[in-house]
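Here's what a typical entry looks like (Small multi-drug export protein):
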Amino acid sequence: MDIHNFIELALLTLTPALELRASIPYGILLAKLAWPEVLAVVVAVNAILGIALFLALGWLVRISTRVRFIKDIYMKIVARTQRKASPLVERYGTIGIALFIGIPLPGSGVWTGALAAYLLGMKFRKFLIADIIGVLIAAAAVTALSLGLLNGF
């Protein structure tokens, strides 16, 4: 894998709503890269993204919500995230956030998982565990699907 491929995979993985749900199929099916290399890059980038987001959220929220327009958008995202994630976290705790991150559906992933954990007051160590488990769940599911498509099931 050359640096160009690495950058493409990393940028797709960092993109909200796409994350590894887009970068794994792109790397395997379109760029025709070896799946172990694709998996290594996107899992690392996605897990690090979750950690960075969780650590930066307090500061980002304080700064960005000073602007009314951004605050309105943020409040809508907060309401949706709490509605989706709260039942999972209340019932399953850390594993609930891991499932929220890991289930490859629209509106889930590390962006919303980090926000949900932050909003629900999860401690960093628990989020770290949830982040890694969730990213691995999502990566396994999307890789299996991508390889199945590549090989015609």
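DSSP finds seven helices and no strands in the chain.

More examples are in the samples folder.
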